[in-house]
Design goal:
With 184 residues, the chain is an all-alpha fold. The protein is 64% helix and 0% strand. It contains 8 helices and no strands. Helix 7 runs antiparallel to helix 8 (134-154). The termini are far apart.
Length: 184
């Protein structure tokens, strides 16, 4: 049986929680603050959080397409290719303002298994790319096109798994083994 004192403690702690958190949630965050948060998350490698912050900023300020570009790229790095596609699709034809948006859009298509659409998107990207390091980027896109063609060729083929007879792991602690001297 629950004692009245425990119910009162629970009630008071819930009340304190609500009083301290409601003002936080009721404050309106500006798109600039969300954009800065996204940048901070990017720096610390938190791509999912960065993407969500950028997407929230973009929803508040949809004319700021650069934020959509950052959200799409961050979603790609967080391996959320569906959301990356959503954010990058409007920008993929904006080669002048967002030169790599088409590349990341095509890579997201490829990552979702849409090899034919990705192949076409990479070809369109190669035709319209105007950014820096042109030869290098165009070579990467060509390699991605070859990967799409391989993906199409291999699609539907059975996967054969084969167990190895090699003993790789032992009972010893072997992770990061480094020799410090002849005997250590």
């Amino acid at each position: 049986m629950v004692k009245p004192i425990e119910i009162m403690k629970l009630f008071i702690s819930t009340l304190v929680f609500l009083i301290t958190t409601i003002p936080v949630f009721s404050q309106k965050t500006s798109w600039k603050q969300l954009d800065k948060q996204g940048e901070a998350f990017l720096i610390s490698g938190k791509y999912k959080e960065a993407a969500e912050a950028f997407e929230a900023a973009y929803k508040l300020k949809p004319e700021k397409e650069k934020i959509a570009s950052k959200a799409g790229t961050a979603y790609f790095n967080a391996r959320n290719y569906t959301k990356a596609l959503k954010m990058l699709k409007p920008l993929k034809k904006e080669a002048k303002d967002y030169p790599l948006a088409g590349f990341w859009y095509a890579k997201s298509l490829k990552a979702t298994g849409e090899f034919e659409k990705a192949r076409v998107a990479f070809k369109n990207f190669r035709r319209t790319y105007l950014g820096e390091k042109t030869d290098h980027v165009l070579d990467m896109a060509r390699t991605e096109i070859e990967g799409c063609e391989l993906g199409q060729d291999w699609e539907g083929l059975p996967v054969v798994e084969q167990a190895s007879a090699l003993t790789i792991n032992t009972e010893a602690q072997e992770f990061g083994v480094t020799a410090f001297s002849d005997d250590i």
